[in-house]
Give the backbone structure.
Amino acid sequence: MALPKANRLKSRKDFQAVFREGIRRNGSYLTLRALKPLLTKSSLGAAIQTTQASDSVYIASTRIGISISTKVSKRAVVRNRIKRQITSALYNILPKLSPGWRLVFIVKPTAAESKCVSPQFLQELEQLLAQAEVFDGNS
């Protein structure tokens, strides 16, 4: 189950912005880097889209990226399995997230060593997102 295209963080520029300016929260299997949306019309850049007719401003959907290096596992099969498990857990959490955030989840080598499964990823994702106050109603 892949994330919707509107919720994927794809460009190198976005990843670099999150790593440079975002907050960091650590867990045992994952690290979360989160960049909070700005609320000013002039400084939002790609996160804000304006409509021509009413000139109203709305915040784009939350975009998520997953970073997993070969330090986690040399085998692509293992790395892809971990990514799929994280993506399926995120798919369940997606409706609860506040709009406009840019999130990057970095997988730690302990995720492959301990044979971490989806419920553990879901629990840790919820914990990290709660610490960063990304859930709706916290920002």
